[in-house]
Recover the amino acids of this structure.
């Protein structure tokens, strides 16, 4: 991972962790230990899914922009399918409070998404190189 990727990861993870801890504390008061456990597991699921996606897109961006987009779409579709399987297989679990898990996943996803967007906006990465040569304009003068 490059330094920019780590900065984006930090700017996304910190708000998600903060929101997840608040949800865990509130869930502990409302539903006891099961609520706190559900919220923490929800936070871990969101963190794992987003980190896997960011690592895949970062690796693919070294290859080409086309591969980066393919990796982004592929990891998104894979995460949706895996999340659907995980949620359906854990629907009858009584070890944690399902509502706390649900709220943690929703709120941590929102916090992660906004944090990641804010992180990318603060990077100020140029999408056009200022001193690059344009094909077909070699030897021409603009003046």
């Amino acid at each position: 991972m490059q330094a920019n990727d780590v900065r984006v990861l930090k700017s996304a993870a910190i708000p998600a962790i903060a929101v997840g801890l608040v949800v865990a504390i509130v869930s502990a008061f409302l539903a006891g230990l099961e609520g706190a456990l559900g919220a923490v597991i929800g936070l871990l699921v969101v963190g794992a899914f987003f980190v896997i996606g960011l690592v895949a897109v970062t690796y693919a961006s070294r290859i080409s922009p086309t591969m980066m987009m393919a990796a982004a779409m592929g990891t998104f579709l894979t995460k949706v399918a895996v999340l659907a399987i995980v949620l359906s297989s854990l629907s009858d679990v009584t070890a944690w409070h399902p509502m706390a898990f649900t709220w943690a996943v929703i709120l941590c996803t929102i916090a992660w998404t906004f944090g990641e967007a804010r992180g990318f906006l603060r990077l100020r990465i140029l999408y056009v190189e200022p001193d690059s040569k344009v094909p077909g304009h070699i030897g021409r003068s603009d003046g």
User: Anything to note?
Assistant: Residues 83 and 91 are 12 Å apart (CA to CA). The two ends are 43 Å apart (CA to CA). The mean pLDDT is 85. The chain has one domain: 3-122.
